[in-house]
Amino acid sequence: MTLWFATRALGLVTLTLFSTVMVLGLLTAGRRAPWRQPAFVITGLHRSLALLSVVFLGLHIATSVLDDFVTIRWVDAVVPFGAAYRPFWLGLGATALDLILALVITSLLRTRLGLRTWRAVHWLAYACWPIAVVHGAGIGTDTRLTLAFDAICCVAVAAAAAVRLSAVARAGTYRQPITGGTR
Predict the structure, then answer these.
(1) Cα gap 122→109, rounded to integer Å
(2) CA-based Rg of the chain, rounded to a whole angstrom?
(3) Tens digit of pLDDT for each residue in 114-141?
(4) Any idea what DSSP says for residue 68?
(5) 50-101 pLDDT tens trace
(6) Distance of alpha carbon 130 from alpha carbon 92, whole angstroms
(7) 159 CB neighbour count, 10 Å cutoff
(8) What are the residues whose beta carbons fall under 8 Å from the beta carbon of 156, sequence distance 6 or more?
């Protein structure tokens, strides 16, 4: 029973951490820190929380596999949609994990890959996060608490996305076209 509670708690903490990472990533994507902090401070926080999120994700997976209430194998955590227990919902979790692994590996190899390749793979975070949210909502047995956490995280990420998109729209609106001549 202890592992059952640990799995759910670690899942909620992981979701909260990844949501915070998403918010920080969205708000600093334009190289401007929204707070009166240097951009490198916010970027460092983003990276540190991303690493901490991966640690909590590993603990979440480990407690899920070690809990003998249901049978979840290590391979089920990595290979999507092959589990005996709730294959669709667990498959979404495995898909999110695979995307996170791609993000982690490319981030570790960032200097060797080049910025364009790294950035292209980093866009997977925008697919990974909602897949993880749906995984948690679908596989969770304590739905009220799970859905409340999901809602709070979704509102935070949606607000950050709205701020980011409005900043992009403002930047596009105020750009002067390059005409090559004088007016």
Answers:
(1) 12
(2) 19
(3) 888 888 888 888 899 999 999 999 987 7
(4) S
(5) 999 999 999 999 999 999 988 999 999 999 999 999 999 999 999 999 999 9
(6) 10
(7) 13
(8) 19, 20, 23
Instruction: Calculate the alpha carbon distances from 20 to 111, 133, 174 in Å.
Output: 25, 13, 30
Residue 42 structure tokens: 């916010």
152-155, Cβ contacts within 8 angstroms, sequence gap of 24 or more: 153/15, 153/16, 153/19
Q: How much is the pLDDT for 125?
A: 86
Q: At what angle do helices 125-139 and 143-174 cross, to 10 degrees?
A: 160
Q: Are 173 and 39 in contact (CB under 8 A)?
A: no
- Residue 30 scores a pLDDT above 70: no
**Distance separating alpha carbons of residues 62 and 60, to the nearest angstrom:** 6
Record the tokens describing residue 62, joined without a space.
Answer: 């480990």
pLDDT at 158 > cutoff 60? yes
> Could you tell me what percentage of the chain is helix, strand and coil, using 3-state DSSP and rounding each to the nearest 5?
75, 0, 25
Residue 183 scores a pLDDT above 80: no
Nearest one of 49, 56, 55, 97 to 76, comparing CA atoms: 97
SS3 of residue 178 by DSSP: coil
Residue with tokens 């859905």: 147
Q: Find the DSSP H helices in 29-86.
A: 39-66, 74-78
Q: How far apart are CA 150 and CA 13, in angstroms?
A: 11
